[in-house]
Specification:
single chain, alpha/beta, globular
Amino acid sequence: MKIAQFIDIFYPHVDGVVTAVDNYARILNGEDGDYCCVFAPENAKGVPEHDGGYDIFRAGSIEFIGGYLWPVPAFSKKVKRAAKTHSFDIVHAHSPFMMGHFARKFAKKRGVPFVCTFHSKYYDDFLRVTHSRFLAKMCTKYVVRLYNKADGVWAVNEGTANTLREYGYKGRITVMRNGGDMDFAGREDELRQRAEKRFGIEENGKTLLFVGNQIWHKNIKLILDTLLLLKPEGYKLISVGDGYDLADIKKYAEKIGAAENVSFEGKVMDRELLAGLYAAGDLLFFPSMYDNAPLVVLEAAAMGTPAMLLEGSNAAGAIKDGANGFVCPGDAAGCAEAIRRAFANREKLKSVGEEAKKSVYLSWRDAISPAREEYARIIEEHGKK
């Protein structure tokens, strides 16, 4: 099977979708003789190419807002050359913009099926940029058009599938979960001790974790407001990640008086150190309504640490409150009370983390196995048309 993955943002930028595409290509390439490659925007100048063990074909790009590169694949010699030298059985797009639309035409021209995964809440993104509900709705309708033309539409969980249906898509949606790569079984204690020393984490303390982009629409204001209420009880927050709102987030923590109980650690690129941090923390506090299937929840679960997620969020779809994780309401007082209840019984908190390891965590290899089967089904079905 020969598979082409298309994406509008790729390394050196990193997010959940980039990580998903990287793992699809890394695991599928060479699996049972399969070939899988990635078509992505041009790499930033002076940045070494990502080495995932698979081919990456970079499209010519135009610099866009925030340092991102906007791909123009139709005018890219590298993409055209790759198209001539490789044949594909199926084409898979992970974003509904330039590369996604090019991927559909690419597949149609070659007479192969086209699959498109719905990863993000695009209406929220459009609204944040345009500040216009009308424009956000128009842009969302444009996004849905691509899914309407696909031979297969995937979503990362049932909540995300429902979001796409709310956008107006009426076709079949296959849930295809994302996975994680926190496979450090047997080394948890070693990694935890290293992280405790590096981050100054006290054993049997009250350590909350946030791991993700430092941007307001991750609901970071709610995290800091909740921490302020918990501050007199000795709760501390370790916040990992970088983002364009980080300076303002730090200012807000100072303004409300929560700064002394939060440690902003920036990006942690060392995967073993990050795994140890998950193991050393008591609870991942991730009350984002924006995220659909955050990989950090899986990563924390792999290290036996449960997550506190917002009730009604897509991210909380697989969480059974008090069994393999926790849910909280959308206000600071309610979140603080939910966290207090979670910490009230340390043994129960630990057992919830162990259950999360069993029922929440899914390795990328296990996640991609059904995707490969679905590729084969779609290829066979398309061949009968």
